[in-house]
Design goal:
Shape: globular
Largest sheet: 5 strands, parallel
Distance between the termini: 52 Å
Order of helices and strands: HHHHEHEEHEHEEEHHEEHHEHEHHH
Number of domains: 3
Radius of gyration: 27 Å
Length: about 475
């Protein structure tokens, strides 16, 4: 809805974002070398040239962090948090870019100041715009007047969300229905039967019509749409089966016939799948080389602190529900590793002291880099589980089996959001499904960076 206004706002925001970055880079240079003093190893021209490269990256990051989505549907706090996250990732990318450019005289402090100023001003612009729009809506400007046609469970949910979020800028004028409906304690006017639609659109100020018919009323759909178009009023469909649809449904075109995918999986695309797999191979191989000293020290630690094999192998369920052998550094006594039906809690008596340490720091997961090289796993994806728990959770947790549509990962969206170890399986699956339906290469990079800062130390484990 209101896509035309949103497009204009998006262009203004992009222009503002670019202008802010161009402004703050020389300011950051001035602060670093004039206010804080110091001898510049390289002139300001290099930083401005660097800006030409990083500006497109920043715009891509802002897209990835949904900073150009409609304002009406997001909280202000959520948007500011995403600005901070996007700029944090951008800061890391700038440092990586400078590493490859091999420019040793670049001032890291200048880049940090640039990032801090850019984050602050970008957030202020969005806060100011939100506040301005809210004031205008409170005064009756930029308000969209809606009329509901039909009433069912989906309509009630829609009404509740619109009325509880005034910042969306919508006002529901009432509803039409051919049947007496139970609307509960909702304060909404009954405007008559569906046959009154044409007259209402002609007499009242209605900006958009929300069509929400029950399955037995669908024969009326064509007539309702025709009435809306004849009156020059936009119409929107709110199907009674919305609970079965994803928030962003993907529509295929079958020779001109639209086909809604209930579960669109971006990684079904060969190019995306190839890109992710190529990155997994390169990154896991590089990781094994770089981390080889740590792997060696850990192996020695496991062997010296408890008799038995260094690597613990366990069957897990992966992509397409196929089992594979997952590797971990052994963290339990040999006689405590055979139980396949016990959920390992933080106070598990089977663990060794060294095992508790490596689990706390997630070091026990590092051998899974070999699983990534083999193709059983990915660096990022839903965590794999044992067959016993797969069968248990598939009966208890809605949509649990959807996690097996992609390769499992060493880390994932659930883990960096705190849902790891002995935590809610329901919340974990929600995160997994979000990841599966919204995958992008930038999202994988975001998760990997977040893992470094908040996903390595496991708060569920005690030393």
């Amino acid at each position: 809805m209101i896509k035309e206004n949103q497009r204009l706002l998006n262009w203004l925001l992009k222009l503002a974002d670019v202008s802010i970055a161009i402004l703050v880079m020389p300011v950051a240079y001035y602060i670093r070398f004039d206010l804080l003093f110091g001898r510049p190893g390289i002139g300001p021209g290099y930083y401005m040239q660097l800006l030409v490269v990083i500006l497109p990256l920043y715009l891509l990051l802002y897209y990835q962090f949904n900073l150009y989505d409609p304002f009406r549907y997001k909280s202000l706090l959520s948007e500011v948090r995403r600005v901070v996250q996007a700029n944090a990732v951008g800061l890391v990318l700038i440092f990586v870019l400078n590493f490859f450019l091999r420019e040793v005289d670049v001032s890291r402090l200048t880049i940090v100041i640039f990032s801090a100023l850019n984050t602050t001003l970008t957030s202020l612009i969005r806060v100011s715009l939100r506040k301005t729009l809210r004031v205008l809506r409170e005064k009756g400007y930029n308000i969209k007047h809606l009329l509901l046609v039909g009433w069912n469970e989906s309509t009630g949910d829609f009404f509740d969300r619109i009325t509880s979020n005034k910042q969306f800028g919508y006002q529901i004028e009432g509803y039409l229905s051919d049947k007496v409906r139970q609307v509960g304690n909702r304060s909404i006017l009954y405007k008559g039967t569906i046959s009154h639609l044409a007259g209402l659109l002609d007499q009242e100020e209605i900006d958009e019509v929300i069509i929400s018919l029950d399955y037995d009323e669908f024969p009326l759909l064509a007539e309702i749409i025709e009435v809306c178009e004849n009156e020059g009023v936009k119409s929107n469909l709110l199907p009674f089966y919305t609970k079965y649809l994803p928030s962003k449904p993907y529509i295929d075109d079958i020779d001109g016939l639209p086909l809604i995918n209930i579960r669109h999986i971006p990684l079904d695309n060969f190019l995306y799948s190839f890109l992710k797999r190529a990155f997994d191979i390169v990154a896991s191989a590089l990781g094994l080389v770089v981390l080889s000293p740590l792997l060696l020290v850990t192996a020695v630690g496991v062997r010296l602190t408890s008799p038995g094999p260094v690597i613990y192998k366990q069957l897990r369920v992966g992509r397409n529900k196929k089992e594979f052998m997952m590797y971990k550094f052994r963290s339990m006594r040999v006689d405590g590793n055979a139980d396949m039906t016990t959920w390992g809690g933080r106070a598990d008596s089977r663990r060794t002291a060294f095992g508790t340490f490596i689990r706390k720091c997630s070091i026990d997961e590092l051998p899974q880099l070999f699983n990534v090289l083999k193709g059983d796993m990915s660096l990022v994806g839903p965590r794999p589980e044992r067959e016993y728990f797969v069968q248990k959770f598939r009966e208890e947790v809605p949509l649990y089996m959807l996690k097996h549509l992609v390769r499992p990962g060493i880390t994932g969206w659930a883990q960096v959001n705190g849902w790891r170890g002995d935590t809610s399986i329901v919340e974990r699956i929600k995160c997994d499904i979000y990841y599966i339906e919204n995958w992008s290469f930038l999202l994988d990079l975001k998760i990997l960076i977040m893992t470094v800062f908040k996903g390595i130390i496991n708060p569920e484990e005690e030393l």
